[in-house]
Design brief:
Helix content is about 30%, strand content about 20%. With about 575 residues, the protein is α/β, with parallel strands linked by helices. Among the domains are: about 150 residues, Urease, subunit C, domain 1; about 130 residues, no CATH class. It is globular and about 80 Å long. Helix 12 crosses helix 13. The strands form four sheets. Strands 8-14-15-16-17-18-19-20 form an eight-stranded parallel β-sheet. Strands 3-2-7-21-22-23 form a six-stranded mixed β-sheet, with no helix packed on it. A five-stranded mixed β-sheet has the order 9-10-11-12-13, sandwiched between helices. Strand 18, helix 14 and strand 19 form a beta-alpha-beta unit. The chain starts with about 30 loop residues before the first helix and ends with a strand.
Length: about 575
């Protein structure tokens, strides 16, 4: 018997899906009222569980600390002392945390869960490190081609800025990939936005001939913008292309189910992620695979789904479905739409590129249309110009139709000052960031990539954190992202000088503030009565650690809806 299972009976992740946005009756802090409210609750969507002997960080101002939490039907019924919780835990499972820290389950504010699992299942993993040269990567790709049926794609995934990490200090060429195989379309991704392709792949994607490449269209009929296919003096592609990720062949529904079933727990749940905002890139059928796996209990992570417009579908098509943000249940909800405003801001050869997908007029019209329809808008912005375009479009929409919203900027790296933050706050705009996922060499902070998070919080802004995983980043963790925000640059942290924050504020970026960015703060992000019983239990107390030690904290257990779905 596991030492933590003091009392146990079989529990299972809730199978019934309750299509409701309501939390039911207002919960109170009186234990009797709480338990009566739970007994009157609707269909069961989770389990009963008492977690005791924990250092509970609730992120609830009225009760910031506790030592035990009781869940009934998958929701929190009581937060308090061991004695109080055990008094109401007769006949249900009791999980002994052994003095470890319990925090709200992490809410990944932006990821591509389906693509991450598909990449792990079906594509070569050639990140740098461990690969140190193109030669080593080519050997792996050649071996994969030899075992792949003729005509099938051979796809390898490598790191962002791979060209800077390999010995050759460049990207692969078309001729080099042709030498790997002419019988297969071959692609080597350096990140998601820059790709090397062989001749067959370029032709299958319609990129080889300059005229056909120039006439590729979005789903809404507009000429495709922002895709770069550098060519030699004769007009022949050298083999590098940008912004073609959405043109790649999609995986079948059964393939996606298998990939999610095999890797979603390892990649997400085991890291304490209990909820995620996801945006399928290759096919909307990914949403179906998500729901089927959730219903079967094979993927215990809650999802909020956004359609990518116009790469995956048209904005009018989404509006015509009649869905409003929040439609769904505790496991799968519709969120809104995502626009790519720009891409990676270079041509793959190191040259700056204004790879905008819209003119300002087009973006203004699309934002107003989505805003008027009540859809939440997520906008990918990497460069300063793209951020200005996105904010301008939201400001214009609010002048026409002022109403509450939570439109967001994704990867808003250009936010550099308090003035930038104030402009966003004036229009009610939120922002998502991807913290560094490694401990960095010590520095004075001048080279750091994380946002000025302390400045944001001081201004009253609530930044959200995310993994943004799409199959390229091999190792990632909310806890490493938290350490990157807390540690100083001299300690290996990722923030600019004097921009590191406390553990609790860093935790909020992965919990309550990310929940707010998805309109879900009444259900998740903190440990209050009536909220979903989603927790992460940590291997060490981050508040008792400093500097490099922060990067060693791991997740010991993940609990979703009162069910222990992962134990280390």
């Amino acid at each position: 018997m596991n030492r933590r299972d003091l009392l146990a009976y079989g529990t299972a992740l809730g199978g019934a899906l309750v299509f409701s946005n309501s939390l039911g009756d207002q919960a109170t802090t009186e234990r009797g009222d709480v338990l009566r409210r739970d007994l009157k609750a609707g269909p069961v969507s989770g389990a009963d569980l008492a977690v005791v002997n924990a250092k509970v960080i609730t992120l609830e101002p009225s009760q910031p600390r506790a030592s035990a939490v009781l869940a009934r039907n998958g929701r929190i019924a009581l937060v308090g002392s061991n004695r109080d919780v055990l008094a109401h835990a007769r006949g249900i499972r009791v999980f002994d945390a052994g003095g470890q820290v319990l925090v709200p389950g992490f809410v990944d504010a932006h990821t591509h869960l389906e693509m991450a699992c598909q990449a792990r299942a079906y594509q070569l993993q050639c990140q740098t490190p461990p690969y140190l040269s193109l030669r080593e990567i080519f050997e792996e790709m050649r071996s994969r081609a030899a075992s792949t049926p003729r005509g099938k794609w051979v796809i390898a995934r490598s790191s962002f800025n791979m060209q800077e990490a390999v010995q050759e200090k460049r990207l692969a060429t078309r001729i080099e990939l042709d030498s790997i195989s002419e019988d297969h379309p071959v692609a080597l991704f350096a990140g998601l936005h820059i790709t090397s392709l062989n001749t067959r792949a370029l032709k299958e994607l319609g990129l080889f001939d300059e005229s056909s490449a120039a006439n590729l269209r979005w789903k809404d009929g507009r000429i495709r913008k922002g895709t770069s296919v550098p060519r030699d003096a004769n007009g022949i592609p050298i083999g590098v292309a940008t912004e073609i990720y959405d043109l790649m062949p999609a995986y079948a529904l059964d393939e996606t189910r298998q990939a999610l079933s095999r890797y979603s727990k390892e990649l997400f749940v085991a890291k304490g992620i209990t909820s995620a905002t996801t945006m399928p890139i290759l096919t909307n059928d990914d949403f179906r695979a998500d729901q089927e796996l959730q219903r079967s209990g094979g993927m215990p992570i809650r999802l909020r789904a956004y359609y990518i417009v116009p790469q995956r579908t048209t904005l009018q098509g989404v509006i015509d479905m009649g869905l409003l943000p929040g439609m769904g249940d505790d496991w799968f909800r519709f969120g809104g739409v995502k626009f790519f405003v720009d891409g990676t801001e270079e041509d793959g050869l190191g040259n700056p590129l204004a790879d905008y997908k819209w003119t300002q007029e087009e973006l203004n019209a699309a934002v107003l249309q989505a805003h008027a329809a009540g859809l939440q808008i997520l906008m990918h912005v990497i460069g300063r110009g793209a951020m200005d375009m996105a904010v301008t479009a939201i400001e214009a929409a609010l002048r026409v139709l002022p109403k509450p919203h939570r439109h967001r900027l994704e990867h808003a790296y250009p936010i550099e000052s308090a003035a930038d933050v104030r402009r966003l706050m004036a229009s009610g705009i939120r922002a998502t960031f991807t913290p560094e996922q490694v401990r960095l060499p010590a520095s004075d902070g001048a080279d750091r990539r994380n946002p000025p998070v302390r400045t944001m919080i001081r201004e009253g802004f609530e930044p959200m954190s995310c993994t943004d995983v799409a199959g390229t980043i091999p190792v990632f963790s909310p806890l490493v992202g938290i350490a990157s925000f807390v540690a100083t640059p001299a300690e290996g942290g990722g923030t600019p000088r004097d921009e590191n924050v406390s553990f609790e504020d860093a935790l909020r970026t992965w919990t309550i503030w990310s929940a707010k960015g998805a309109f879900e703060e009444s259900e998740k992000g903190s440990l209050g009565v009536g909220k979903l019983a989603d927790y992460a239990i940590l291997s060490a107390d981050p508040e008792q650690r400093s500097g490099p030690e922060l990067f060693d904290v791991e997740v010991s257990a993940t609990i979703v809806g009162g069910t222990v779905v992962y134990e280390r």
